[in-house]
Write a structure and sequence with these properties.
The chain is α+β, with helices and mostly antiparallel strands. Helices cover 48% and strands 16% of the residues. The strands form 2 sheets. The protein has a 4-stranded antiparallel β-sheet with strand order 1-4-3-2. Strands 5-6-8-7 form a 4-stranded antiparallel β-sheet, with helices on both faces. A hairpin with a 4-residue loop joins β2 and β3. 31% of the residues are buried.
Length: 226
């Protein structure tokens, strides 16, 4: 996990234009005397165990019940908004170009690579439907779903909030996100729908009615709504 707090990274200072820095020994800097871990971009990191993730989720459920999903989403939402601002800073500093001027796919892959290095999983973005106001994100090896295993329900609310927060800041338009397929439901990977609130509300309704991710994709692409 990481928080946007700038810490000096000696290798980065030595090679400020080095882009292939995602090897474990390059990306992370361990400071034994201070007990801190910082990454290439100056963000402070915290190493956690699977027990921590389980304890966090079970603790929330015990405290707030079904509202724990909304709490995790809200945490991810704020994280995504803050990380979007932090990303803009280090992206421009490293590539000498503003995010607004960069190739969109390069920009997004550059944003997610540190998350992959930190153990949050790999992703794929399907922007074929972007002109219709929504897009899909496939997540492989979700840290949350991998830890909880097959529990028969979506569990990656933190990721959904993270995506909603980041893209809301990036496009300066309020977006929402919902997980429509999860590794913890016995699927091979997780799938998220990102879009305006009315699209997400429709997807949530269809999910509750038993629709699959494929059903939801087909309905959205055919223009169905509530």
């Amino acid at each position: 996990m990481d928080t946007p707090s700038v810490h000096s990274h000696k290798l980065h200072q030595q090679y400020p234009q080095k882009h292939n820095h995602y090897k474990f020994s390059d990306f992370f800097q361990f400071n034994g005397s201070e007990g801190t871990i910082s990454d290439w971009n100056g963000s402070r990191n915290i190493l956690t165990s699977e027990d921590f993730i389980i304890g966090l989720l079970e603790g929330l459920e015990e405290e707030v019940g079904a509202a724990s999903a909304a709490v995790m989403y809200s945490i991810g939402l704020e994280w995504g908004k803050q990380d979007s601002q932090f990303f803009d800073q280090w992206f421009e500093r490293e590539y000498n170009v503003s995010p607004q001027q960069a190739n969109l796919m390069f920009l997004l892959e550059t944003w997610w690579w540190p998350f992959t290095a930190q153990g949050w999983g790999r992703w794929e973005i399907d922007m074929a439907d972007r002109t219709q106001g929504f897009m899909f994100i496939n997540l492989f090896d979700s840290a949350v779903a991998r830890t909880l295993g097959d529990v028969g329900k979506p569990v990656c609310y933190l990721y959904a909030g993270l995506y909603a927060g980041f893209f809301t800041e990036m496009v300066r338009k309020q977006l929402s996100c919902i997980e429509i397929q999860c590794y913890s439901m016995g699927e091979t990977y997780c799938k998220f729908l990102l879009g305006a609130k009315d699209r997400i509300d429709a997807a949530a309704f269809w999910l509750n009615e038993g629709a699959t991710a494929s059903d939801i994709e087909n309905r959205l692409r055919s223009g169905d709504s509530l």
